[in-house]
Automatic annotation (TrEMBL):
This is C4-dicarboxylate ABC transporter. It is a multi-pass membrane protein. It comes from Halopseudomonas salina. Residues 120-556 form the TRAP C4-dicarboxylate transport system permease DctM subunit domain. Part of the tripartite ATP-independent periplasmic (TRAP) transport system.
């Protein structure tokens, strides 16, 4: 959320957000650090999650108006009423949590509990609408009502029709809906990383990473575009939001790209692709990665480690494309005199790298992913207060708390809505049968099922947040692929990557539209450029789902071979897309051979990077022969044309 948006928020809303943010962080610390062992009171999981909802759901109605925009005027009476009702419902379930467990309220509850559950359901839907907009509301509303109509579907998709009262109590009392995986991930993992990300930005981490990128890469060929990749990758890993990333780094990187000769459209496309990849970059990825860790029941550190190679391949593909594009168009870097000095930059911001390293150490070596971000945040704030030039005043602490409160509230509303989708599939019995239905439709062919999943994930990513799209397919599609023999980590990562593609692909391309607004370019043209620039991300999920060694799931030799082939293939694909390769020069100078040569390099690179897999009807020998033959033919034609062309 931008500072401008914060500055127009009504003072009452801002004060309440600050108070509830501190209370939410305190409750999370109490539960995650198991302080109940010292106080004698340990909360049930349901009590803890409803405690968070009791604080953050009212903030949705206080801070986000029923219409569009941010709260500027005083909160109207009906929003106060909704806020108080949400508190009352959550407190009721907190007080009666033991009774709910003992008497099995998720299947049968007293009539007054049914009424309170219906009210809680309605409040959660309205919170989802305010936080996610009408598209996600329509999806969640339809999905949450689905159990009542499940019995009327065709036989192959039919579920169990369930009365509305049983649906309501299941949504509020089972650990599959409002208390399900999305809320559990938010409560146990996301809160700490949100605190860390906001603290990093507010203490000047964003400026440091941008300055560092300019100092390292600003003067090289196409430097500002490479700066965009470097800085957006680091910023995106902190914010977890593509649009926030674009609006943070874009105002600096896009004008710099324009200064050295990039067009407005191309500069905006580069920023879009870089910001999209940042959300997939460890160690701090988007909220979906934490949900994935909860789904797979593995430490978040393993998710971050598995995401490292695919993320690096994506940014490598972007970097190489920009280098080739710059070489082909003879674009230079910025003058050294206009760039920050690396020594001075590191002197002012060394502690950000130190804190990042500390976080990675706690995640990967100490295996403390739940408490790691709290320690990292505390360390960052202590170091910040010891440095005179960046020391916070009381006003800065209040702004930090308010920003945390706003983000907590927004994500709480979204997670509650996504939980309703999970609950609907569970209570209708569809979550256990839909995988077999999909396998039947695909005829048992894993490759067909992968393509179906990719398209479905992409379409869902257009109309709803990536987390919601991921969870739906993690329930519906992932079991079918895993039962077919595919690696669970690879399958879930595949779904996540394809859900992110809607940010760069027309007609929606939210990230491209945000970058176009910064660059002053055509949104649709920008989205097509970003799709071309980021085209490597369309292939990488298929690479790693067919070859889990790219997720570090295999022997050392398998990992080395897979990475080597992928890197070589990406270089050739980038060369074909940009029409330039080292030693061969500008392929457009090859006359009529221009487009055939580019196609040969792209296809040859795909065959080189494509791993052998029993699900693909091509043998390992055929893959090698095809890739080697196409690449050799392209290089040979280029060499012959150069020898025969007039001087």
């Amino acid at each position: 959320m931008s500072e401008e948006q914060e500055s127009i928020r009504h003072p009452v809303a801002g004060s309440l957000l600050r108070i509830t943010a501190v209370a939410t962080a305190a409750l999370a610390i109490y539960q995650i650090f198991n302080l109940g062992a010292y106080t004698g009171f340990t909360m049930l999981t349901s009590q803890y999650i409803y405690g968070l909802l009791a604080m953050m759901l009212p903030m949705v109605f206080v801070a986000i108006p029923a219409g569009r925009g941010r709260r500027v005027d005083p909160t109207p009476w009906y929003d106060w009423l909704l806020g108080l009702a949400s508190i009352a419902c959550c407190v009721f379930f907190i007080v009666h949590s033991n009774e709910a467990v003992d008497e099995g309220w998720e299947y049968m509850a007293p009539q007054h509990v049914v009424y309170i559950s219906l009210l809680t359901w309605a409040i959660a839907l309205e919170a989802t609408r305010r936080c996610g907009g009408w598209p996600i509301f329509v999806v969640v509303f339809a999905a949450s009502l689905f159990p009542m109509l499940a019995g009327y579907l065709p036989d192959s998709f039919a579920g169990i029709s369930t009365p509305i009262d049983l649906v309501a109590i299941y949504h509020t009392n089972s650990d599959e809906s409002l208390l399900g995986i999305p809320s559990q991930a938010f409560a146990n993992l996301v809160i700490g990383f949100l605190l860390f990300g906001i603290a990093l930005q507010r203490t000047g981490g964003g400026k440091f990473f941008i300055d560092l990128a300019f100092a390292l890469l600003g003067k090289v060929r196409g430097g500002p575009a490479k700066v965009s990749i470097f800085s957006s990758g680091l910023m995106g890993s902190m914010s977890g939001s593509v649009v926030t990333n674009v609006l943070t780094t874009g105002p600096l990187s896009i004008p710099a790209m324009r200064k050295v000769g990039f067009s407005k459209t191309y500069a905006a496309g580069v920023e879009t692709c870089a910001s999209t990849g940042g959300v997939l970059m460890p160690p701090v990825m988007g909220a979906t990665a934490f949900v994935m860790a909860t789904f797979l029941d593995i430490p978040y550190g393993e998710i971050a480690l598995a995401a490292a190679i695919p993320s690096a391949l994506y940014f490598f593909g972007l970097f190489i494309q920009i280098d080739f594009y710059s070489a082909r168009n003879r674009l230079k870097g910025l003058p050294a005199i206009d760039l920050p000095k690396i020594k001075q930059t590191m002197k002012e911001g060394w502690h950000y790298i130190f804190v990042f390293g500390f976080l990675i150490w706690m995640l990967l070596f100490m295996k403390q992913e739940a408490i790691a971000p709290f320690y990292a945040t505390a360390l960052l704030l202590v170091i910040n207060q010891l440095r005179k030039h960046s020391r916070w005043q009381w006003k800065d602490f209040k702004e930090f708390a308010e920003a945390c409160g706003a983000l907590f509230a927004e994500l709480t509303g979204l997670m509650a809505g996504v939980g309703l989708i999970m609950g609907a599939l569970a209570v209708s019995g569809m979550s256990g049968t839909i995988a077999n239905d999909l396998l039947f439709i695909a005829g048992g062919d894993m490759l067909v099922l992968l393509i179906m999943g990719a398209l479905t994930s992409f379409i869902l990513g257009i109309g709803m947040p990536v987390t919601a799209a991921y969870i739906f397919l993690a329930i519906a599609l992932a079991p079918a692929l895993i039962n077919g023999g595919m690696n669970p980590m690879a399958v879930h990562m595949f779904i996540l990557y394809w859900g992110m593609l809607s940010f760069i692909t027309p007609p929606v391309a939210i990230g491209a539209f945000a970058a176009a607004s910064v660059a002053g370019s055509s949104p649709m043209k920008t989205s097509f450029v970003s799709m071309q620039m980021g085209s490597i991300i369309y292939f990488i999920p298929f690479f790693f789902v067919l070859e889990p060694a790219l997720l570090l799931q295999g022997s050392a030799l398998e990992i080395i071979v897979a990475i080597t082939c992928a890197v070589g293939g990406i270089i050739l694909i980038a060369g074909g897309l940009q029409g330039y390769l080292p030693k061969l020069g500008d392929l457009s100078e090859r006359g009529l051979l221009h487009w055939p040569l580019r196609a040969l390099f792209v296809i040859g690179g795909l065959f080189l990077a494509m791993p052998y897999n029993p699900y693909v009807p091509i043998t390992e020998t055929m893959l090698f022969v095809l890739s080697f033959g196409l690449i050799a033919a392209a290089i040979g034609l280029t060499w012959v044309h150069r020898r025969l062309a007039p001087a």
